[in-house]
Amino acid sequence: MKRTPPIQIDWKPDKKSATPIYQQIVHFVCNKVAKGEWPIGTRLPSQRTLAENFGVNRSTVVTAIDELASYGIIEGCRGAGTQIVSNTWSLLLPPSPDWNNYVSSGFFRANNSTIQAINRLEFVPDMIRLGTGELDPRLFPEKMWKYVLEKLSRKVNSLGYLEPLGLPELREAISKHMKTLGIDAPPSCILITSGSLQALQLISVCLLKNGSTIYTEAPTYLKSLQVFQSAGMKLSGVPMDDKGIQFWKITQQLRKDSLQNSSILYTIPTNHNPTGITLPESRRKDLIDFCTANRLPIIEDGAYQELCYDGDSPGTNCQGLFNQTSKFLRKYGKRRLHLNNKS
């Protein structure tokens, strides 16, 4: 039987490429087989000839041939040299990607094991969910919402995208409501998000540097910690007493952090989750003075600002932090506020 002559190869790897030469050879052979240019039975030149044609060491050719053989594409046949023995599509694919490596190299980080365990346990039927701060379903005003939604359904004429900042009417209503709290925020300064967690995520990825320090009450809202942690931020718990956050205890650490990266304070001053503490007006003013002196921006989580079962709403008699924040913004609002403590 006449022996099939080896195929002629007129190709050389790119030695300036960042891709290793042996991988270039592997991709070249796979491409030829995939296109049908090298059918089953095609005989390859000897390793020495391939090394000379490619202008590489023989060891490089051996490495490429070993990988192609592991795919099942080529095989050494006695008396016939190395041949193409398969063109099955599945064999032409590279090994399965290491998804764990891709995930670990991404910007967002996985929550720590404790938070992951809490997330799982919150959906166990006999567990009471305290981490999310949700109201008891029995308190949901079902009849009122049915009435409101039925009335609004007659006015809905589009389900398309809204303006980038959100529904104008909603921003206008929020602006009017903020004025009752002593904050002058025109609709153009208001951004509607899907919830507070999306707002925290936007702050983390858009305004803060990776590795920034987030000062927050210890304990605090669990879900917010997940957002900050997944965005690569460092968390620093601040002790609390019966009046709220003891912010003065971070003075030394704040000075150290200011030399390395940006810092920001995340606080829930009214009806704090999970302690229920409301920061008194005197301490709110002291907190604002402290943050102003240390150039420490504040993220105020006001989800429970107007939730009060006894007496007046905290929004009417405990708005010291709101008012003082407005004064702070009026004082420094005309200057660009950098979150690296250098402004």
Task: Walk me through this protein's architecture.
- This protein has about 350 residues and is α/β, with parallel strands linked by helices.
- The chain has two domains: about 20-90, Winged helix-like DNA-binding domain superfamily/Winged helix DNA-binding domain (Arc Repressor Mutant, subunit A, Orthogonal Bundle), CATH 1.10.10; about 115-135 and about 165-330, Aspartate Aminotransferase, domain 2, CATH 3.40.640.10.
- It has helices at about 20-35, 45-55, 60-70, 90, 100-105, 115-120, 140-155, 170-180, 195-205, 220-230, 250-260, 280-295, 315, 320-330; strands spanning about 75, 80-85, 215, 235-240, 240, 245, 265, 300.
- The strands form three sheets. It has a four-stranded parallel β-sheet with strand order 4-3-7-8.
- A hairpin with a 3-residue loop joins strand 1 and strand 2.
- Helix 1 crosses helix 3 (about 60-70), helix 9 (about 195-205) runs parallel beside helix 10 (about 220-230) and helix 12 (about 280-295) packs parallel to helix 14 (about 320-330).
- The radius of gyration is 32 Å and the shape is elongated.
- Residues about 315-320 and about 320-343 have low confidence and may be disordered.
